[in-house]
Write a structure and sequence with these properties.
This protein has a domain at 83-106 and 221-402: Rossmann fold (3-Layer(aba) Sandwich). Helix content is 43%, strand content 16%. It contains 19 helices and 14 strands. A 6-stranded mixed β-sheet has the order 4-5-13-10-11-12, with helices on both faces. It has a 5-stranded parallel β-sheet with strand order 9-6-7-8-14, sandwiched between helices. Helix 11 packs parallel to helix 13. It binds pyridoxal-5'-phosphate. Pyridoxal-5'-phosphate binds at residues 105, 107, 138, 215, 247-253, 301-302, 356, 381-382. Pyridoxal-5'-phosphate (PLP) is lined by residues 105, 107, 138, 215, 247-253, 301-302, 356, 381-382.
């Protein structure tokens, strides 16, 4: 498979180069040259295949020539080593729980797939690659965990001191091995600025090979299509009109779902549910793309004002607003509505949803007002324990710590304090 830049001013590249580059030299996102169609019989009998077999069938065309089959199999075995259960909530509504991975956020799948791809490409290189990431909380944990123990790759994480939750800080700072955490005196934006500066710093080139691990990387984006296939794999047949509601921030997850549909998965409609950061819901009303700066909410992993993957969604619909509108509805919800939904789901179904999942639920309910016959699945993208304060305060109930979190609570946090770019630079050169 070859990948082209959506800015169309850079050469087509292999999977390998797309993963290593992250972003094309012209600043565009990489996009696959074609979307392969899965065999009809395979889709029809999806329930008979194992998650690993489904992963291999779906991902092979995207990595072919760069990752041999046995290697892809061993990568996917590690990526898919936890469950993605479909849990009934109410009549015609289920949730797909994507939070059973090591850091309990759905980003575990993409982060691990990218880490193992990169580790494979760098296996015989003398020089190590350094993955540099700034995090406001969740991404850093998933990336760090994905890369833990991967040979030839070092990870350096920058996070704002005192501005991530205790659990998140534990996830970033207790891993050891090839993962190092720098706590920055400042905000997330300061961390982000330092990372950008390092990528542009010519004096680092030659001494350190830096790479980013954010969600625009094709290796983090594409494997997310597996969630949709694995949901369908668990459905009791026959399935009528099937819709997915996806809590969306950078729109990578929902876009991967749309890829799965293009490849033949029978999904009738997508709902992009957002918090008050409503650039896409406004676009779907007006067809005018007018990004706003982001606003802080209780579903903070979706506090994105200018979603980076939206250009991929437009490409997938040939930049045709009408066909996009047939495939996608998008609604935004306030924190107040989100909390009311959390309470309703809890009292009606005894299910504890985290704020992101609750936004997904609201999107589905809204769509069902005009499409009462559809069967809906909303994605639960994080375990409620990751948003402990909001959840306990809203639902007045305790959450038992899952083993992944329990395990790290007594570990000692290790991080290095920095406050200037110079300090980061020195650290990278050491
Ligand atoms: C990252 C994240 C999202 C948003 O996913 P996108 O692919 O960026 O749209 C939603 N929920 C949680 C918990 C996340 O961590």
């Amino acid at each position: 498979m070859k990948y082209y830049s959506l800015n169309r001013q850079a050469p087509m590249v292999s999977y390998r180069t797309a993963v290593i580059n992250g972003i094309a030299p012209d600043g565009g996102l990489y996009y696959p040259e074609e979307l392969p169609i899965l065999p009809r019989a395979f889709i029809r009998e999806l329930d008979r295949y194992s998650p690993l077999e489904i992963g291999i069938q779906a991902m092979t065309p995207f990595v072919q020539k760069d990752i041999p089959k046995n290697e892809l199999e061993s990568i996917l075995e590690k990526v898919l080593d936890f469950d993605f259960p479909l849990v009934p909530i109410e009549a015609q509504i289920e949730t797909l729980e994507l939070f059973h991975g090591p850091t309990m956020a759905f980003k575990d799948v993409g982060a691990r797939f990218m880490a193992l791809s990169l580790g494979y490409f760098n296996r015989n290189e003398e020089n190590e690659i350094t993955v540099l990431v700034a995090t406001s909380g969740d991404t850093g944990g998933a990336v760090a965990n994905g890369f833990l123990g991967v040979q030839g790759v070092n990870v350096v994480i920058l996070y704002p001191d005192g501005k991530v939750s205790d659990i998140q800080e534990k996830q970033l700072t207790t891993l050891g091995q090839n993962i190092r955490a720098l706590r920055v005196k400042g905000t997330f934006d300061d961390c982000q600025r330092m990372v950008k500066k390092a990528f542009a710093d010519k004096s680092l080139k030659g001494s350190v090979q830096l790479t980013s691990a954010n969600s625009i990387n094709v290796a983090r984006w594409l494997p997310q299509m597996l969630y949709y296939l694995l949901a369908y794999h668990q459905k009791k047949k026959p399935v009528g009109e099937l819709v997915f509601s996806v809590p969306s921030g950078n729109f990578g997850n929902i876009c991967a779902g749309m890829v799965a549909k293009k490849m033949g998965l029978p999904i009738s409609h997508f709902i992009a549910a957002t918090n008050v950061n409503d650039t896409v819901p406004r676009f779907m009303k007006t067809s005018e793309y007018d990004p706003h700066p982001s606003t802080a909410t209780i579903s903070n992993a979706m506090d994105v004002g200018d979603p980076s993957n939206f250009v991929r969604i437009l490409e997938l619909h040939n930049n045709d607003f009408k066909s996009l509108k047939e495939n996608l509805s998008s609604y935004s919800f306030t924190d107040k509505e989100t909390k009311v939904a959390m309470k309703k789901i809890y009292s009606k179904s005894k299910y504890i949803a985290d704020p992101h999942g609750a936004v997904g639920y609201l999107g589905l309910q809204k769509y069902r007002e005009t499409h009462p016959d559809c069967e809906g699945i909303f994605l639960e993208t994080a375990h409620p324990v990751k948003f402990l304060d909001v959840v306990t305060e809203t639902l007045h109930t305790d959450i038992t710590l899952p083993p992944q979190i329990e395990k790290i609570m007594n570990k000692k946090k290790v991080s290095i304090p920095i406050s200037t770019y110079e300090e980061l630079r020195e650290f990278l050169l050491k």
